[in-house]
Amino acid sequence: MENNVLLDNHITVEECSGHLSSVEDAIYVIGGKWKLKIIIVLQESGNIRFNELQRKISGISARVLSNELKDLELNGFVKRVVHAEQTPVIVEYISTDYSKTLKPVIMALSDWGKNHKNNIREDVFS
């Protein structure tokens, strides 16, 4: 039974394949150059308008920001709030409670990135 072979005494090939599929799904949803940056800014800022969000994310174009916000909204990470009772109409974006479940992932990635940068520096300069 090939699927029951243990890879490192902890996980089978079948379980590894399932984990790999889950990681691919996660990367598909939050991967890319901008999505995590947008999520982080929204979590730090609370309600924020489009132009202010664009100013806080250096280098992102309005078109790319708009497309990324649509993707994030479809996946439940961002909520678009329209205040139609005001003139002019105000549109704000806020992070959802669901997006806040990414905080441990973001912190783990941050820690890993710091360690990786230090490892690279040690290898280059030693």
UniProtKB/TrEMBL annotation:
Gene3D superfamilies: Winged helix-like DNA-binding domain superfamily/Winged helix DNA-binding domain. InterPro entries: HTH_HxlR, WH-like_DNA-bd_sf, WH_DNA-bd_sf. One of its GO terms (molecular function) is DNA binding. Residues 16-121 form the HTH hxlR-type domain. The keyword Transcription applies. Pfam families: HxlR. Keywords: DNA-binding, Transcription, Transcription regulation. PANTHER family: TRANSCRIPTIONAL REGULATOR (PTHR33204:SF29), TRANSCRIPTIONAL REGULATOR, MARR FAMILY (PTHR33204). This is Transcriptional regulator, HxlR family. It comes from Chryseobacterium takakiae.
